[in-house]
UniProtKB/TrEMBL annotation:
Gene3D superfamilies: Winged helix-like DNA-binding domain superfamily/Winged helix DNA-binding domain (1.10.10.10)
Domain OmpR/PhoB-type, first and last residues per copy: 1-91
Provenance organism: Cohnella phaseoli
GO function term, MF aspect, one: DNA binding
UniProt protein name: Transcriptional regulator
Origin: domain of life: Bacteria
Length: 379
C-alpha cells in the first residue's frame, strides 16, 4: 500500500519516496483512492481544482508529469489514457519472491504481536510505517490489520468501495466513517443500533466498540440519560475485556455524560481515574482524547487559558499518533461542545477551520453518500 504524506507532498512505498508538487500530489492521491475507475478531464478538474479556473491543458500537463514521476513504480502503478474518456490509474500486484521468513512460525507470531502491541498503545504512525514497508521487511499479511490500517490512515474510500471485506466488517467500517465525517448524531445512531441488533455477526470487540460509541452518539444527539443507561448496560462487559484502551474510553464517555449533566465532582473523578489508568498504560491515542475532555471540563470550570492549552496538547498528541478517525472524533467533540456552550469563540473558529481542511483533504462530500448507500443496502 502506498502511503501519502500530506505535509511533504510525498508518496512512499517500501522505503522509496516520490516528491510531488501539491496538485500532482492531489491528482495522484485521488486517482489512487479511486483506482480502476476512468475519469474525464472535467471530473478531474472538479476533484482536484474545485475552486479554480485552470487552463484547458492543466489536467494533461499534470498527468504527463505524474506519469514521469511514477516510472520507478511502473511495477506497482500504471496511469492509462482511455481514448475518448480520460484517464485511469491501475494498481498492479507487485511480483513477490519466496520469503523464507514466512515459513518461520515464531517470526509470523512475533510480527502479529508487534502489530497488536502498536495498536494497543495507539501508535498509528508505527502501524502505517510497518504496513508501507511490509514487503521490504518480509512481514506477513494480516487481513484484519490490512483493512484497519487503511481506516487509521483515512483511506475511507477504499473501505467503502472494496469487495475484499466481509459484509458485516464493511458495514462496521462504514458506520464509523459515517459518524466521523458529519455531525448528525441521530442518523449515525440509527445505523449503530441496527448493527448492534445484528451482534451475532460481529466479534466481541467490534460489538463493544459499537455499543461504546453509540452511548456517545446518544449524548451528542441530546439524550444524556439514554447515554448513561447505555454505558451502564455495557459496564460489566467492558470490565471483563480487561482492556486499558476500552476502559479509558469508557471512563471518558462517563465523564462527558457527567459534564453534560453538570455533575462537576463526578466529571472530575472520572477524569482523574482515566488519568491514573493512562499513567499505568501510556496509550497515546487515549491520552490525546483525555486531554481534550479535560480541556472541555476546564472551560466549564472557568479556566479558559488552561482549557485551550489542554485541548491543543490533546489534539497535537492525537495528530502524532496518526489515527485519523480519532482526530476527527476529537474535532467533532470540541466543535459540538463549544457550539453548545459559548466559552471561547476564537477557539471554536480555529477548530472549525481545521475540520473544513480535513473535510477537503479526505473528501467528505464524496464519502458521505457512499457510506449512506452502503449502510442503507446492508442494514
Amino acid at each position: 500500500m502506498i502511503r501519502f504524506d500530506s505535509d511533504t507532498y510525498q508518496a512512499e512505498y517500501a522505503g522509496q519516496s516520490i516528491r510531488l508538487l501539491p496538485k500532482e500530489f492531489a491528482l495522484l492521491r485521488y486517482l489512487y483512492e479511486h483506482s480502476g475507475r476512468s475519469f474525464s478531464r472535467d471530473e478531474l478538474l472538479d476533484a482536484v481544482w474545485p475552486l479554480e479556473a485552470p487552463g484547458d491543458r492543466t489536467v494533461d500537463d499534470h498527468i504527463y508529469r505524474v506519469r514521469k514521476k511514477l516510472i520507478p513504480w511502473s511495477h506497482l502503478l500504471r496511469l492509462e489514457t482511455i481514448r475518448g474518456q480520460g484517464y485511469k490509474l491501475m494498481r498492479l500486484a507487485p511480483k513477490t519472491q519466496s520469503n523464507p521468513l514466512l515459513q518461520d512460525e515464531q517470526f509470523v507470531a512475533d510480527a502479529s504481536r508487534m502489530l497488536a502491541k502498536y495498536h494497543g498503545l495507539g501508535m498509528g504512525a508505527a502501524m502505517r510505517l510497518l504496513s508501507a514497508n511490509r514487503d521490504v521487511l518480509g512481514l506477513p499479511g494480516d487481513p484484519f490489520y490490512d483493512a484497519y490500517i487503511r481506516f487509521v490512515s483515512g483511506d475511507f474510500a477504499w473501505l467503502l468501495e472494496t469487495d475484499e471485506l466481509s459484509r458485516p466488517q464493511q458495514a462496521v467500517y462504514a458506520s464509523f466513517i459515517h459518524a466521523s465525517i458529519q455531525f448528525d448524531a441521530h442518523a449515525s445512531l440509527r445505523y449503530f443500533d441496527k448493527l448492534i441488533a445484528r451482534g451475532n455477526e460481529l466479534t466481541r470487540a467490534w460489538l463493544n466498540d459499537l455499543k461504546l460509541n453509540a452511548a456517545y452518539l446518544a449524548l451528542a444527539a441530546g439524550f444524556p440519560q439514554q447515554a448513561r443507561e447505555r454505558l451502564n448496560e455495557i459496564r460489566a462487559e467492558i470490565a471483563d475485556m480487561d482492556s486499558p484502551s476500552f476502559t479509558a474510553l469508557f471512563l471518558l464517555k462517563e465523564a462527558l455524560v457527567s459534564m453534560e449533566e453538570s455533575h462537576s465532582e463526578a466529571t472530575a473523578a472520572k477524569l482523574t481515574e482515566c488519568d491514573t489508568l493512562l499513567e499505568r498504560h501510556p496509550i497515546r491515542r487515549e491520552r490525546g482524547a483525555y486531554l481534550v475532555a479535560k480541556g472541555l471540563y476546564l472551560y466549564e470550570q472557568g479556566a479558559p487559558a488552561r482549557a485551550r492549552q489542554s485541548i491543543e496538547e490533546g489534539m497535537e498528541t492525537t495528530r502524532q499518533t496518526q489515527f485519523i478517525p480519532h482526530l476527527l472524533n476529537s474535532l467533532q467533540l470540541i466543535i459540538r461542545c463549544l457550539e453548545a456552550h459559548p466559552y471561547d469563540d476564537a477557539c471554536l473558529q480555529n477548530y472549525r477551520r481545521q475540520w473544513d481542511a480535513m473535510a477537503a483533504q479526505y473528501r467528505f462530500a464524496e464519502l458521505l453518500p457512499k457510506a449512506r448507500r452502503l449502510l442503507d443496502n446492508r442494514l
